[in-house]
Amino acid sequence: MVDTSFLNFFFLGAIQSSLYKEEVVEAPNVLMKVTERGGAELQSAQVGDPLELRFRISDYESPYEIFVRDLIAKDGNDQTEISLIDSRGCPSEGHIIGPLTPVPGTNIFTLSADFDAFKFPTSEIVQFRAHVTPCIPRCKPVRCDGYEGGAHVSMDSYGKRRRRRSYAPSEDENGESKVLVTQAFFVSDKFRHGKKKRPEAARNVTSGREDFFQEKESSVLPTPSDICMNLTGILVAVGVLILIQVALGFAWNHIRTRINSSKCDERSGFPPNAVIFNPYDHHARHR
């Protein structure tokens, strides 16, 4: 038996990949919206109400994530504005609004930040404006410095707290493309309008102490009948005062006249009914 081996050489040439596919992905449409805590639709807002500011992509199949920066709030007259999130994506007014964090349990990438409703003295319209940067496949969070409970802490844009450590500010790692989004809503004062009825979802996230210290408000505006009665009472009181003053004037004038008459009689030395004899007048009669 002879062992025989065969070697076959084939020239295959350049191997082309069949898994390569090139596709252009369009930039996403980003929506900004003010909602109740928990995402419920906002019917109306009063100063101090707990609200949320949400950013999301409108396309459910979009591969993008989003990163928010340069968030400002302006009044309805474009006269006053405050910075809420700076150009790095960190909260610049931590006592007004917190960091933007992803909303869990949503089918599409959504960012939200909690805040209490506020308004400007010059207008009841509050406008939000922000630059949104789309990222693919993921947005890198930015770490922000802040104070919490008196301690200096650092947090990234997704709300994860870390221990303080020194770092150098990095360049923009989420790209240069920006989308400008705006949103405006109406905020009223609590002393102008009655307390609004909140949805059940919003009431569930509030503290139970609100039920114990629940306010009872009543209308203090006068009715038309009350206004008429008040005007009538004022007119009657003014008329009575005028009559009293006139009567006192007549009485004082009469008393003063009698006092002056008595003083004149005392000075002359004659009684009031005395007849004075005038000889010249007597001769004049007999002529």
From TrEMBL:
It comes from the Eukaryota. GO terms for biological process: anatomical structure morphogenesis. InterPro entries: Celegans_DevNeuronal_Protein, ZP_dom. Keywords: Membrane, Transmembrane, Transmembrane helix. The keyword Transmembrane helix applies. PROSITE patterns: ZP_2 (PS51034). The chain crosses the membrane at residues 231-252. Residues 1-151 form the ZP domain. This is LOC100169340. It comes from Caligus rogercresseyi (Sea louse). The lineage of its organism: Eukaryota, Metazoa, Ecdysozoa, Arthropoda, Crustacea.
